[in-house]
Amino acid sequence: MKQKKWATTLGAMLLATSLAACGDTGDTTEEDQAIDVTEEHNAEQEEAHGTMDHSGSDEVPDGLQEASNPTYPVDSTVVMTADHMLEMEGAEAKIVGAYDTTAYAVTYTPTDGGEPVENHKWVIHEELDTTEDAPLADGTEVTLRADHMEGMDGANATIDSSEETTVYMVNFMLQDGEEVTNHKWVTEDELEPKE
């Protein structure tokens, strides 16, 4: 009799545990968490790049050298894989300039009092107020001479990372039909050939 009672109690406990596991506990799945992270990333990008001057002039900083043999020549069409700006990833772009330099990801506080911008990609060596040779070490403090975003020119910044590469100036279309011209900068590893 004791065995039967013990088996019944064990069975009831297992059934209760199974039902509790199947119930809605309010926990999110890995897929839901991934969606939340993606939405949060997109919102951060929109906020960080909301004041970005998507289009720019075709002028480049003094001393910037044109690439002699770029992987993607001027006038070629590519697909961007970069996601540091909304609507960039997957967009087709036309190469309008190719230059050999050092590209930096930087963290800076805008001069117009905006929130700090972390890991902004990209500022090139020729857009820094420095007499030091490239590449600068991670953690180096510099003054920016780029105007990609409001409050960037003259801002104090810290080098987060650097990459010696070919950078490209590109034209592309946003999803709303706005044409972005002379966008600075996309690095070589953020581009793929158009198939």
From TrEMBL:
Residues 40-72 are annotated as: Disordered. Residues 76-125, 138-188 form the DUF1541 domain. Gene3D superfamilies: Domain of unknown function DUF1541. Coiled coil: none annotated. Keywords: Signal. Pfam families: DUF1541. Residues 1-23 form the signal peptide. Residues 40-57 have a biased composition (Basic and acidic residues). This is YdhK family protein. It comes from Exiguobacterium alkaliphilum. The lineage of its organism: Bacteria, Bacillati, Bacillota, Bacilli, Bacillales.
